[in-house]
Design goal:
Length: 493
C-alpha cells in the first residue's frame, strides 16, 4: 500500500477530510490526541430535544499564556470528536459577500475562494448532518439544504415584518439536530467522531490511533515536503514516527498553529512553512454576548432558536452582528413544549472584528507545555469599534421588537466581552493568494510546503458574524477532494 495521508485531529474538519479521502481510495491514518470516547445523553421526541447531557470540558492541552486581555479563554476538548462533543449544532452558510467585502479595507482581507466554489461542498456537508431549518433565501444568510422543515413560529411574523422593513430577516436557525425521534449516548446529535470517523473503521484503508499526541512534522529538505509525523503515545510515553505522503492538520486554530511552530527546522526556524512571518498573526474571534429580555406582552415561546440576520451589506466592512433568540432558561424551554406564550427570551449576539497582525498566538519561551515545548501566548482584545458594534446590535434588536409592538427590558446586563468565550478563534494559519498575507493557498496547502494542509478555522482569512463550523467543513472537504485528485494523477508535490 502507498504511504498514507495523516489526518491530525478527529474534530469536524479532520473527520470530513478523512471521510473524503477514504471515499476516493486514499489510505489514511488518523492521529487523535484524546483517548476517551464521546459521552453524554441526547433524547429527542417528536422533533423536540427533551434531554441533553454534554460531557464536561477537558482542559488537557490548553496550556497557554494570556496577553493584552488577561481574561482570554482557550476552550478545548481533547477527546475524539473535539468540540462537536459540546457544540450547539448551528450551521449557517457564509454569504457570497462574506468572502469579498474585506477587500474594501485592504487586499489582505480578500479570500482566495468564493461562495460559488463552496456551494457543492456546503450541500454535501449539509446532507451528512440531517439539518433542521427554515426554507428561505436572504442576501445575508443563504439557504442551505435542510432535511427537516422548521418554519418560523407564527407568533413571530410581526417581528419578521419589522426586520424586513430594515433590510434584515428573521429565520429559523439551521441546526444539526438529528432525527425528530432519537436517543444517543452522546451530548450532541452530530458528533464528528461517531458520525463520520467510526464508520471508517470498516475500511481497510483507514487506521485510527487515539491517545496519539502529535509532536512535530518532519521536513524532507531535499524535496521541500513533509515525509514523517512524530507523535507520543499518551499511555506509554513512547514516541513513534510515521512515514507519510502528506499531512492534514485539523487540531483547532491554536493547536494547529502551535504544531507548526513546534515543527520548526533548519529550513524554517520560525515554524514549518513560515517563510514570511505570517504564522500566528491575524488571530480573530467572535465577540460574544448573552442576556435575557422581558417583553411587554406575550409571544410564542421558542424551542428551536431563531436568528435575526445582520444589517444589509454596505455598513463598515467586516463589522457586523447576528442575533440568536431562544429560550431564556430551562423552565422556559420546558414551557415551550406547551402552547402557552411567554414574555422572556434569551439573546445571544455574535459580532465580528477586523483581523490585524497585532492580535496573535505565538510561542512563549518562558512557559513549557506537558511535552517540553513552548506554550502559546494568546494576545487578543476587542477594540472600541467592536464594542460599539455590539452596542449597536442590542439597540437594533430592541428597535425591531418595538417596531413589531413589543417593548423590552433587560432582565440582566450582558456579560463582559471576553476573547475566547465564543470558542471561535480563527485566522492564525490564514488562506491568501499571496504568501505575504497568508500561510495557505486556495486549497488549504502551505505555500512553502505543499503536501501539508491546514483545514480547521485557523485557515480563515476573515470571519463574518456567522458560526464557522459548516464553512470550515466545506473548505476541508474541498481541500481533501483536490488532494485526492492530485494523488491519483501523481502530481501532488
Amino acid at each position: 500500500m502507498s504511504l498514507p495521508i495523516v489526518v491530525i485531529g478527529s474534530g469536524p474538519s479532520g473527520a470530513v477530510a478523512a471521510h473524503t479521502l477514504i471515499q476516493r481510495g486514499i489510505p489514511v491514518v488518523m492521529l487523535e490526541s484524546g483517548d476517551t470516547l464521546p459521552s453524554g445523553i441526547l433524547l429527542r421526541v417528536n422533533g423536540r430535544t427533551i434531554l441533553r447531557r454534554r460531557p464536561k470540558v477537558n482542559p488537557r492541552g490548553a496550556t497557554h499564556v494570556t496577553g493584552r486581555n488577561p481574561n482570554t479563554q482557550w476552550w478545548v476538548h481533547l477527546d475524539p470528536g473535539g468540540l462537536t462533543n459540546l457544540w450547539t449544532g448551528a450551521v449557517p452558510r457564509f454569504s457570497p459577500e462574506d468572502f469579498t467585502e474585506g477587500e474594501q479595507l485592504d487586499t489582505r482581507y480578500r479570500w482566495p475562494v468564493d461562495y460559488e466554489e463552496l456551494v457543492p461542498f456546503y450541500e454535501r456537508i449539509e446532507k451528512m448532518m440531517s439539518i433542521s431549518g427554515g426554507h428561505r433565501e436572504t442576501p445575508m444568510a443563504p439557504q442551505g439544504v435542510f432535511r427537516y422543515e422548521q418554519p418560523l413560529p407564527r407568533g413571530w411574523q410581526a417581528v419578521d415584518r419589522a426586520a424586513q422593513a430594515r433590510g434584515q430577516a428573521l429565520l429559523s436557525v439551521p441546526i444539526a439536530n438529528g432525527a425528530p425521534w432519537m436517543f444517543a449516548r452522546q451530548g450532541t446529535a452530530f458528533n464528528s467522531f461517531t458520525c463520520l470517523v467510526v464508520p471508517l473503521l470498516q475500511s481497510p484503508l483507514f487506521e485510527l490511533r487515539t491517545g496519539a499526541h502529535v509532536l512535530r512534522l518532519e521536513l524532507d529538505a531535499t524535496q521541500q515536503r513533509v515525509g514523517g509525523v512524530v507523535y507520543q503515545d499518551r499511555a506509554s510515553g513512547q514516541q513513534h514516527r510515521i512515514s507519510v505522503a502528506g499531512a492534514i492538520i485539523a487540531c483547532g486554530p491554536l493547536n494547529s498553529t502551535k504544531l507548526l511552530f513546534d515543527s520548526a527546522c533548519a529550513a524554517f526556524p520560525e515554524g514549518l512553512g513560515n517563510r514570511e512571518g505570517v504564522l500566528g498573526h491575524y488571530l480573530h474571534d467572535h465577540p460574544h454576548e448573552w442576556f435575557s429580555l422581558e417583553l411587554s406582552k406575550p409571544i410564542s415561546r421558542l424551542d428551536h432558536c431563531i436568528y435575526l440576520t445582520r444589517r444589509p451589506f454596505g455598513y463598515p466592512p467586516l463589522m457586523a452582528s447576528g442575533i440568536t433568540l431562544g429560550a431564556a432558561s430551562v423552565l422556559e424551554r420546558v414551557l415551550s413544549h406547551t402552547p402557552l406564550p411567554g414574555r422572556k427570551i434569551g439573546v445571544q449576539i455574535m459580532g465580528s472584528m477586523v483581523p490585524t497582525e497585532d492580535n496573535f498566538a505565538l510561542p512563549d519561551r518562558q512557559k513549557i507545555d506537558d511535552f517540553g515545548m513552548p506554550a502559546i501566548r494568546v494576545c487578543i482584545d476587542f477594540d472600541k469599534d467592536v464594542k460599539d458594534n455590539m452596542s449597536l446590535a442590542r439597540k437594533n434588536l430592541r428597535e425591531v421588537l418595538e417596531d413589531a409592538g413589543y417593548e423590552s427590558r433587560m432582565i440582566h446586563e450582558p456579560n463582559v466581552l471576553c476573547p475566547g468565550s465564543s470558542v471561535h478563534f480563527a485566522g492564525t494559519v490564514r488562506m491568501h493568494n499571496s504568501p505575504v498575507y497568508g500561510m495557505l493557498d486556495r486549497y488549504n496547502r502551505l505555500h512553502a510546503v505543499p503536501n501539508v494542509l491546514v483545514t480547521d478555522a485557523s485557515c480563515f482569512t476573515t470571519c463574518p458574524e456567522k458560526k464557522p463550523t459548516l464553512t470550515m467543513m466545506a473548505l476541508s472537504c474541498r481541500a481533501a477532494e483536490r488532494l485526492a485528485d492530485d494523488l491519483k494523477r501523481g502530481t501532488c508535490v
